[in-house]
Every structure is written in C-alpha cells, then in structure tokens.
Amino acid sequence: MGVIAWLIIGGLAGWIAGHIMRGGGFGLLGNIGVGVVGAVIGGFIFKQILGMGTGGFLGSLFSAVVGALILLWIISKVKRG
C-alpha cells in the first residue's frame, strides 16, 4: 500500500476512533498518527492473533479503526493510573 493510502486510511481511522471514544477528532496530524499506529496494531491483531487478513480499502480501514480504538483505550487507562 502506498504512503498516500496509509495517510488517508490513518486520517480516517483516527477521526472515526476519536469520535467514537471521546466525541471529537484530534486534528489532522493527530488523526493520522492515531490511525497509522492503530493500523499497525489492528493489522497485527487481525493477521497474527485471529489469523485473518484485511483486504482492500474497507478491510484496512476497519482494522485501523479497531487498532486505533484499542490504542485510545490503552492511553485512557494509562492517563488515569
């Protein structure tokens, strides 16, 4: 997948996860950062743990959103503790 596609999917995933977890996004760079890290986490979970691949744009976006939600949940737990 190209760098532009990673940035687009990362931005969308971060924006979606931000709206789900806290009701708003994190700005353009924050959304991209959360989404790209989330894509790495989601890709690992889907491929290594569940044994599933993510295919196409929607599959990549879904796994990135799941990973971003997990990342935001972990960050919220660390901030509280």
TrEMBL record:
Record's GO cellular component terms: plasma membrane
Membrane-spanning ranges: 28-46, 58-76
Keyword terms of this UniProt record: Cell membrane, Membrane, Transmembrane, Transmembrane helix
InterPro entries: Transgly_assoc
Topology in membrane: Multi-pass membrane protein
Source organism, top-level taxon: Bacteria
Compartment list: Cell membrane
Family that this chain belongs to: Belongs to the UPF0410 family.
Name the record gives this protein: GlsB/YeaQ/YmgE family stress response membrane protein
